[in-house]
Prior knowledge:
The protein has helices at 13-22, 46-54, 68-76, 92-95, 118-124, 160-184, 216-225, 292-298, and strands spanning 2-7, 24-29, 34-36, 41-43, 58-59, 80-84, 102-106, 129-135, 146-153, 232-236, 239-249, 260-263, 268-271, 276-283, 289-291. The chain is of the alpha/beta class and 314 residues long. It has a seven-stranded mixed sheet. Strands 10, 11, 12, 13, 14 and 15 form a six-stranded antiparallel sheet that branches.
Amino acid sequence: MRTIFFGTPSLVLPCLRAVAAAHEAVAVVCRPDSPQGRSKKLVPPPAKVCAEELGIPVHQPEKLNDGTFEAWLRSMAPDLCVVFAYGRLLKQPILDVPAKGWLNVHPSLLPKYRGPSPIQSAILHGETETGVSIMDVVLEMDAGGILLQETTPIDPDDTSETLGERLAEMAAPLLVEGMNQVAAGTAVFTPQDPARVTTCPLFEKEHGRIAWDRSAEEIRNLVRAAQPWPVAQCRLRGEVYRVHRAAVLEEPAPESPGTITGVDKERFRVATGRGQLVVEVFQAPGKKALPVSEFLKGRRLEAGEQFEDMHACP
């Protein structure tokens, strides 16, 4: 089938490679190059780099709904369009173009966690299982019928990065199977149960701020969800530090939430709303993340010190 692949971040690369190997990938559509770093140098998105390596033409429209992109899409005469983490909503005139419709890859067990951050949300809420859904694309976000699903457990030490990598690898053969069903005319889409729908917001930088009055388990889930970005943030001595890895100590602390309750050679403990957070990898402002054993060689932490309210940060 003549297929156009819509996707932008590195998460989509296993699917892009699988589609290119299994069908005729005639173009990749991704977000425009974006300025990065202090120099604001334009950097191409991972999907563009991968497409060029595969010899697939790349299209990076600034606008989708002024008629120009729709005309380009019609000129490409795709049988099927595939979308995974493209990052922009598609309106009905565009959805009507491919003869065999659209398939979307969504890294959750729909109808749970419709929205832009299902991987982070599953970890943040302490889920023990998630998966990948291959679905039809309709105007309402992530509301199309489900063609295929596959589940995977969430390891207690999974982060958004490790879980995302696993889901991306799972999605690739599942997507190709779905495309093959569409090509053969055997695809059957099951409507989502509206009574079971949950949604998730975009996971943004401020969502990484630690609220010490939450339970230690909730804070540890945040630490996991915020890896690799934006990393869980806390404020000490007027500066923003980051927690990269932590564990939970169920033992209650008499100190108020946010108080350092103890420091040893390899970790330190902080009182929370329930239990204590055991910090194992910590990052000082402008420095690299370090195991606490290394961090303490250059900076001092003392029991009784108090982390400050992150909501006071600019």
